[in-house]
Amino acid sequence: MIETVASMRLPVDETLMINKNRIEPVDATGEKKRISIVTGTHGDELEGQFVCYELQRRLQEGREHLKGIVDIYPAMNPLGIDSITRGIPQFDLDMNRVFPGDEEGPMIEALTKQITDDLAGSDFCVDIHASNIFLKEIPQVRINELTADTLVPLAKQINVDFVWVHASATVLESTLAYSLNSIGVPTLVVEMGVGMRITNDYCYQLVEGILNLMKENGLWDGPVGPVKEPVISSDHAVGFVNANESGIYLPLKNIGDEICAGDILGRVMDPLSGKVVEEAKSPIDGMVFTRREYPVVYSGSLLGRVLGGDM
Q1: CATH code at 281?
Q2: Do 215 and 222 form a contact (C-beta atoms < 8 A)?
Q3: Which of 7, 36, 255, 280 could form an S-S bond across to 125 if both were Cys, CB 3.0 to 4.6 Å?
């Protein structure tokens, strides 16, 4: 059942609406567990669009196996998706920096307050993001260390390759995930793929993970494919590779490749002189989990991340 959970009047007699699709068990009692799937907060992150489609297809095909309520919010920032804009057009605003919102605040804060209120009461939430147009990310869950005890066990169930536990100092309190975790809704932030693209394999992998998360917590008793055991970052170092020179970057390693310290991740070239101005090398042994996709780089541009240790 499609419902409008938040709406605001716009100029020229238009209305901004945030919709969700609620899928309930055949024997709905109103007392079932509830999982919310959220995506489209950034308009240039499209991986979650396919996840929403494929998850709904699987649920509809196996409706008899559904034992809980699934709320799917595919477009938290519909204006951004329509215009392929990361933030909210005309406002120059990152929607994921204004939660939990304020009903007495400006338009967008009032909108995010309505969204937060609708998500409150979920037993679980999965907040799906892609990377930006510059970087490709291996499927991963990112967790604030303050919520690690609660969220890491859930992250192990969702079929990602990597769980990155961040220091609390790097976590922004104005994000949707922080706001929901603060009110007792365990929320997993999934990051995968690349901006403005859909990586089919990653999306299928996450759909299996969501179904497995549901099965492990009593919302689904249908079939689930194989589930990966993720690497947890707390046991491994993370190496960052940044450019020292400006130019055109050509990566030589792929996501998931295992490399050694000193291996060349890619080269920065100067088209004017026809020379390689830098060879970007891994600082540690490990696995490439972030790769630069956009070729134009400047000094300081992130070229890749390496997850240290034996994989």
Answers
A1: 2.40.50.100
A2: yes
A3: 36
Helix axes 47-61, 200-216, angle to 10 degrees: 50
Its domain, for residue 86, covers 2-232
216 and 256 share one domain: no
Decide: residue 150, CB within 10 A, 0-12 exposed, 13-18 middle, 19+ buried. middle
184 and 42 together in one domain: yes
In this prediction the pTM is 0.95
Two structure tokens written together for 244: 């020292």
Of 116, 89, 90, 88, residue with least CA distance to 102 = 116
Whether residue 100 is preceded by a cis peptide bond, meaning omega within 30 degrees of 0, is yes
The pLDDT of residue 305 is: 97
| Residue 311 to residue 308: CA distance in whole angstroms | 8
Please check whether residues 225 and 241 belong to one and the same domain: no
pLDDT at 310: 66
